[in-house]
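Dear colleague,

Following up on Tuesday's group meeting, I ran the structure prediction for the two-component complex that the binding team flagged. I've pasted the input sequences exactly as they went in, so you can double-check that nothing got truncated or mislabelled along the way. The structure tokens for the whole assembly follow below. Feel free to forward this to whoever is handling the docking comparison.

Inputs:
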Amino acid sequence: MLEVRYRTARTRPLARATLPAALDPGLTIRPAEAGARFSLRVRKATGTVAGLPLDGPINSLAGDDARWIARLGPDEWLIGTSETEADALAAAVASDLAGTAHALVDVSHRNVGIDVSGAKSAILLNAGCPLDLGDTAFPSGSATRTLLGKAEIVLIRWPGATPRYRVECWRSFATYVHGFLVEAGLGTTAPSKAA
Amino acid sequence: MLLIDCPYCGKRPETEFRCGGQAHIARPTDPSALSDADWSEHLFVRANPRGVHAERWNHIHGCGRWFNALRDTVSDRFIETYPVGSEPTTGSHPSQGTEPTRSTQTETRA
């Protein structure tokens, strides 16, 4: 559990990230606010923890932007919430899973989020992500671990009709992932058909 | 792109996976009773068939789970994937007519 006094001193790895002026206007690439992240491993995929459901399908997301749970595998979940709620959430999960073997690890300082939105988000992400990001294969409310370029990421597509994605990567990969997305954003415009 | 059908996630790109070698290897129940030759055979000798091969695969950049797969080493086609602890339903590859390799015994070594 994080000591409260350390949170104020936290330095965000992408605090100085800048976007080039030439970025496609149909795209937004923005480092997400710092938040708390928990990795939960438990065999029992039923019920809820801290009000978040465990029984969703694998590779799906539940909750809203501020408080979400992504099921990454049969027994693995990634939970995101605000930093102020971190201690309360950990305590709530521990009480909900009391008597059940489980592991709840605070990975807040490991994970860095980058928000990608705009009509061309899927084209941008597909510059480095081999997944099919079409509406059928990866509808809104999906979340999965995958690759972006050479880095492992967790890709979340928030619920809603407009494509909004969250790229969660490890802190040491953050500058690489952000740079990769920005560079890919320079090339999402369709080539002109002028002869 | 080669798609591999993860039993948990569905069809996913090949780069998310890692191969873990031959599947269904019978571990010795009492390793200390084995001769050095038998032990080295268990550790190091694996089948390398031309045709259907049962392999362990890990969806390392996805759900992180291990599973088994029947793969044809000639065509690189995945015939079937199935969870660890279960048996393949396909059996042998119809066109090859060979059983999946299941043992480390080296009748095929010579």
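Chain B has a mean pLDDT of 84.

Cheers,
M.
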